[in-house]
C-alpha cells in the first residue's frame, strides 16, 4: 500500500479549487436538462425505428425540442441511430 501523503502530494495542483454549491447545482441542472432533451428525442427516433424496422433510413425531421432541423440516420443492420439537431446545444447523440 502506498503512503497516503505521497498520493495526495502527487495529485495536487496549486490552481485547483473545489466548485461552489451554486456551480454544482448549475451543472446538475444542465445535465438533467440534457438528459430530458435526449429522452424526448429518443422517443421520436424510436417511432421511426419501428416504422422502418430492419431498413437503413436517414432524413431530416422537425426537432421536438426546438422545432429546428433534426438529422436522423438509422443503420438497418443493428438499428443504431445517429441524431443531431442543427440548433447549437440542443441534442446530439449516437447509439
What is the gist of this entry?
The protein has 95 residues and is of the alpha+beta class. The chain contains two helices and four strands.
How is this fold's topology laid out?
Blueprint: H1 4-10, H2 21-51, E1 57-62, E2 69-74, E3 81-85, E4 92-94
Antiparallel strand pairs: 1-2, 2-3, 3-4
Describe the model.
The chain has 95 residues and is of the alpha+beta class. The protein has one domain. The chain has 2 helices and 4 strands; from the N terminus they run ααββββ. It has helices at residues 4-10, 21-51, and strands at residues 57-62, 69-74, 81-85, 92-94. It has a 4-stranded antiparallel beta sheet, covered by helices on one side. It is elongated.
What labels would you give this structure?
95 residues, alpha+beta, four-stranded antiparallel beta sheet, 40% helix
Shape: elongated
The biggest beta sheet reads: 4 strands, antiparallel
Largest sheet strand order: 1-2-3-4
Mean pLDDT rating: 91
Strand content: 15-25%
How much helical structure, as a percent, in the residues? 40-55%
Output the number of helix runs.
2
Amino acid at each position: 500500500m502506498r503512503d497516503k501523503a505521497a498520493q495526495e502530494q502527487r495529485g495536487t495542483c496549486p490552481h485547483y479549487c473545489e466548485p461552489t454549491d451554486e456551480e454544482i447545482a448549475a451543472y446538475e441542472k444542465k445535465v438533467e436538462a440534457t438528459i430530458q432533451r435526449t429522452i424526448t428525442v429518443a422517443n421520436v427516433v424510436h417511432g421511426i425505428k419501428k416504422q422502418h424496422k430492419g431498413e437503413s433510413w436517414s432524413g431530416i425531421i422537425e426537432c421536438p425540442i426546438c422545432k429546428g432541423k433534426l438529422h436522423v440516420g438509422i443503420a438497418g443492420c443493428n438499428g443504431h441511430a445517429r441524431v443531431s439537431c442543427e440548433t447549437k446545444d440542443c441534442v446530439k447523440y449516437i447509439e
